[in-house]
Amino acid sequence: MDGSRRWTAPIVGALAVLCATGTAVAASGSSNSSYAMPGERTAPSGSRVQVAARILGMHNAERNRLSLEPLKWNVHLEREAEQWARVLSEKGVLQHADRSTRNGTGENLWMGTAGNWPIETMVGMFLDEKKHYRHDSFPNISRTGSWSDVGHYTQIVWRDTKEVGCAVVTARGNDVLVCRYWPAGNVWGRKAY
């Protein structure tokens, strides 16, 4: 890898974090298929099940710290997240799926240079936003004045969220992580927990 890629990887990862708001409805779909396309991988450093367990463990460790009910893994949300991650990785950009496409679920996104980021770092960047979190009603939830600086974190710890499904896809030199949450967090006028 040349020096410019090493330099840009941390910047791309740090800047490539977005979050969403919205109301929620249950997601649907089947989890019987394999998600890998030729030239893509769906799980960094381990099987899909191992990666899911690590992601869920990180989410629930923070929820446990706050005495919140643990999230359950939803394979239907995982499949929808995987489909959207494939689209984003092929485009090489991050953008949230529109509400109708994601069935009103919450969504956290992350992108970085392929192969440079363990899943713990990807999810860890969402969790690291807690340093800016202010316990108030949405959107007044950030010490920086911008709710988007903590929106990933608040989606993870949103009291009413019960299920999560995430997927990582690699294509065109990018790793893309998409997490879908049901019911969605970051609801106007409510506190995260």
Automatic annotation (TrEMBL):
Signal sequence bounds: 1-26
SMART domains found in the cross-reference section: SCP (SM00198)
Top-level taxon of the source organism: Bacteria
Keyword Transport found: no
Transmembrane domains' residue ranges: none
Keywords per UniProt: Signal
InterPro entries, A to Z: Allrgn_V5/Tpx1_CS, CAP_dom, CAP_sf, CRISP-related, V5_allergen-like
Pfam families: CAP (PF00188)
Domain SCP: 50-189
Entry protein name: SCP-like extracellular
Organism from which the protein derives: Qipengyuania pacifica
